[in-house]
Amino acid sequence: MHTPIQVSIQAPGLRLTAALNSEALAELVALVQRYRVPDEAFRPPLGRAPMPEPGRPPFGLRLHHHREAQPQPSASLSPEAQAVRQRLKDLEWENLKLLLPRLAIGDKMLLIISWLEAQNSAPVHRQLFRAQFARTTEPMPANPGRDLKNLIHAGLLHAVDERSASVTETGWIRVGQLAGPDEEPGAAAVLA
Hints:
3-stranded antiparallel sheet; single chain; alpha+beta
């Protein structure tokens, strides 16, 4: 039996709350990612913070899901993103490590998280990420929490919960670019 998802949508003149089948989670996440408005658009004028009604979520879409969330299914990814995901699934860890030294810390983190998600077909828990990062010869980032938040704000990752993240369509496209033909000679051969 699937645990239902509680969805609340609040907008001017509209307040809708419904329980949906858990199969709708991937489509809801894709919808939120596709139509997300930057957080700055919801900031109230200084000194006037809107107060939601008691028991009601603030303006926007809220998802409440109590079982482990699933990553965006391959069917909802573009063919380009699906191809990158499949290449990472087929890639050995030792070959992936060859790409890391030339990347910025955020790209290293995105590449490792993408590889883990492709291997496990599930969102990546932060402990799994840290354990995998420790298997590299790279120094651990000074503030990985901040770096992960930056990847989320850039739309490359989606926070599934406080401790797990999933790669977005944009994130898969970025991973494909990290080892694309415009990079150093020989780098594209790792993901090709």
